[in-house]
Design goal:
This protein is mainly α and 153 residues long. 48% of the residues lie in helices and 5% in strands. The protein has one domain: Arc Repressor Mutant, subunit A, CATH 1.10.10. A hairpin with a 5-residue loop joins strand 1 and strand 2. The chain is elongated.
Length: 153
């Protein structure tokens, strides 16, 4: 099974936004940090916003940030949103299945169990888990993070 680049980029956007916290992110800075096309990210950011994972702000100082806490976003749900299909083999889709073994083959059931186990693992991983090493990730990606400054009176 191979996930699409779109899924990979969507997860990277969520990770980046999580690292930045309340500070707004931009498509341009994410494209620069990851060394990927800005055009590929625009669609990711748009759809992540429509699905409720990002909130966007327009204007000169606009950008986006997470709309949910990072521990409330699982990798499994993002994979389900971003992948057009999770049909591992043709017999998963009754509209396109041409396999003559459909009624007697046990392979489909094995693949179904494998896919369910795969998604179960991904459902147990949150964006917060992916960015647990915020310092290391920030350093690697060149993300400037702002620490809260306590005021003394």
């Amino acid at each position: 099974m191979r996930l699409t680049s779109f899924t990979n980029y969507a997860l990277r956007v969520l990770m980046y936004a999580s690292i930045k916290g309340d500070t707004l992110s931009s498509v341009h800075e994410i494209a620069e940090s990851y060394g990927i096309s800005r055009a590929h990210l625009v669609k990711c950011v748009h759809l992540l916003g429509r699905w409720g994972y990002l909130e966007s702000f327009r204007g000169r100082n606009g950008g986006f940030r997470l709309a949910l806490a990072p521990d409330q976003i699982t990798v499994g749900e993002i994979v389900r949103h971003t992948e057009e299909t999770l049909d591992l083999v043709e017999c998963f889709n009754p509209d396109t299945n041409n396999c003559p073994l459909i009624d007697i083959c046990k392979l489909k059931r094995a693949f179904q169990k494998g896919l369910a186990a795969f998604l179960e693992v991904l459902d147990s991983v949150s964006v917060a888990d992916l960015v647990a090493d915020k310092h290391g990730l920030s350093s690697t990606l060149g993300i400037e993070t702002h620490k809260a400054v306590s005021k003394q009176h």
